[in-house]
Amino acid sequence: MTDGGEAVLAAIRSRRVVRAMTAEPLPREQLETILDAGRWAPTAGNRHLQRFVATDDPTTLRLLRMVSPGMLQRPVAAITICTDRPRTAAFGFPPDAPGLHVDVGTAAATLLLAAHAIGVGAGPVTSFSRAAVAVVLRLPDGWVPEMIVCLGHPAPGAPAPMAAHRRLTWRDLTTWVP
Ligand SMILES: Cc1cc2nc3c(=O)[nH]c(=O)nc-3n(C[C@H](O)[C@H](O)[C@H](O)COP(=O)(O)O)c2cc1C
User: Fold this and answer.
1) Quick check: pTM over 0.70?
2) Is residue 19 within 6 Å of ligand 1 at its C-beta?
3) Is the distance from the beta carbon of residue 106 to the nearest atom of ligand 1 less than 6 Å?
4) Would you say domain 16-155 falls under CATH 3.40.109.10?
């Protein structure tokens, strides 16, 4: 076990999606810590073709929420993971290259875990109008919003609205081959 290994494993196990958040703002330093963690996520070919669009502006957050049916929480900040299509094309990746979607996932997992590690609640959202989010965030041409990571202080005692399924074991998820 490496130094801090137990703490990392404990954080992985205890992270949960937070869908109820208080209205207390997040300090910018905490947002920057989470964003800085995001750049360490593995990316296909180490290309870093995603960009993070961050906001803690109440009006922008309200508008994001209006165009995002999957945003059940009222976040006080949000990081939108975007694929930069022109950059993708410049690197010779076809727009449907599976690595691009995988990169969104690795970035999201890293942001969620980093938030949890510093005591910030986080929840991913993919149910939103891509066209509307691009307008709200004034995204440059060719930037596609792929996932919004909502951030805020967890509201104490608030139940998670999504039904909890039986937590699968690693054995449920794993097939050994000889
Ligand atoms: C690709 C992806 C899309 C998701 N979209 C949403 C969403 O739109 N709204 C939401 O509340 N949760 C969303 N989630 C969160 C999942 O519902 C959540 O991870 C799952 O219920 C397990 O909960 P846990 O992460 O707390 O263990 C999404 C997760 C992933 C990986």
Assistant:
1) yes
2) yes
3) no
4) yes
pLDDT tens profile 25-59: 999 999 999 999 999 999 999 999 999 999 999 99
Q: Mean pLDDT over all residues of the chain?
A: 94
For the Cβ of 116 lying below 6 angstroms from any atom of ligand 1, the answer is no
Which atom of ligand 1 lies nearest, measured to the CA of 160?
26
Question: Tens digits of per-residue pLDDT, 70-84?
Answer: 999 999 999 999 999
CA 86, 91, 95, 98 dihedral sign is negative
Ligand 1 contact via 121 beta carbon (within 6 Å): no
Please report, for the chain, the start and end positions of each structural domain, with discontinuous segments joined by +.
16-155
CA distances from 57 to 26, 96, 136, 156 (A): 11, 32, 12, 23
SS3 at position 19: coil
